[in-house]
């Protein structure tokens, strides 16, 4: 599955658009992490725990989107956008969406 | 009296550790930016077509916390109005760090260019517990080896013709 935030691929022709596919994930960290984050807010610096948390949930949201794209028979998901919103303190929702497309078979010079 | 004492200690701690963390972070950012300077990140929506490229989605994210002193300063400025300088540097750091992480991922994939770079910012928490999350993402173009002549489909040629400034 080709995933890109471009709208068009220079070397592939888009055969048909299959519509929007999306994936979302809401996650939170355990209380200990939240307390560490509270401490960090006194001293400043990166919140590594939250960075990891958002990375994991982004991955999960992406997987869900790809699963949906696969189920409708897409070859690629183009024009991907990420959107984030904090629901409550300590929980964040990650939303990934893009347009699923079917690509025409490759023509021209053969490539790997 | 004790409350004022705690407040002052937190303020001093926030100022000392916060500015130390910020200085250290900026030093690291400037160093890594110089290292990754050879990999341009471009906001254009239409990728280069001079070579045969493979596309990869790359992204980098970071959560940076404000410190007690910064939050206090921001509260003060909020009262009188004006530029919240203490938060400007916070967001600047987060944005540059996210960009660097995205570039590092692209570099690991041996990309030459990053196209269609977008930023996404979110605040986590509020008031004294404010921190900011920044995500940078884009499409990394990895030159294919052996390099075939570039393939441009008629469809893409039409799109470029409609956007002559982008070609």
Task: Note down, in words, how this protein is organized.
With 112 residues, chain A is an alpha+beta fold. In chain A, 33% of the residues lie in helices and 41% in strands. Chain A has two helices and five strands, in the order E-E-H-E-H-E-E. Chain B contains four helices and three strands; from the N terminus they run αβααββα. The N and C termini of chain B lie far apart (67 Å). In chain B, strands 1-3-2 form a three-stranded antiparallel sheet. Chain B is 48% helix and 24% strand. Chain B is α+β, with helices and mostly antiparallel strands and 167 residues long. Chain B has a single domain (2-166), classed as Hypothetical protein apc22750. Chain B (Translation Initiation Factor IF3). Chain B has helices spanning 2-35, 68-80, 85-108, 154-162; strands at residues 53-67, 113-124, 131-143. The interface between A and B is large, with 44 and 57 residues. Strand 3 of chain A pairs antiparallel with strand 1 of chain B.
Can you lay out the helices and strands and say which pair or pack?
The complex is a heterodimer of chains A (112) and B (167).
Chain A: E1 2-3, E2 14-28, H1 31-43, E3 44-46, H2 48-71, E4 76-88, E5 91-103
Parallel strand pairs in A: 1-4
Antiparallel strand pairs in A: 2-5, 4-5
Chain B: H1 2-35, E1 53-67, H2 68-80, H3 85-108, E2 113-124, E3 131-143, H4 154-162
Task: Please name the defining characteristics of this protein.
heterodimer, A: 112 residues, alpha+beta, Translation Initiation Factor IF3, four-stranded mixed β-sheet, 2 helices, 5 strands, 33% helix, elongated, B: 167 residues, three-stranded antiparallel β-sheet, 4 helices, 24% strand
